[in-house]
Amino acid sequence: MPCVDDADTAQARVLLAALWEQVNDTSSKLEAAERRLARTHAGVSSHHRRAAADLRHELYHEHRLIDQLHRRFPGAKRP
Fold this sequence. Notes:
This protein is mainly α. The mean pLDDT is 88. The protein has helices spanning 2-39, 46-72. The chain is rod-shaped. The two termini are 23 Å apart.
């Protein structure tokens, strides 16, 4: 069944590339949210704190998916 494993690993590589793009996008959004949070006044910042927290949670989830794919398909890691 090496062909199936090779196809699965190739598909995992494609998914990993997409996830890394998503990590970069989420990281940029989080940085922007944290900059906005730093500029806001204490009474107005609850929305910005929540947005930053949501983005941190999303980033954590993306990294968890990447870790799971690396464990499941060790051959999908870039050399």
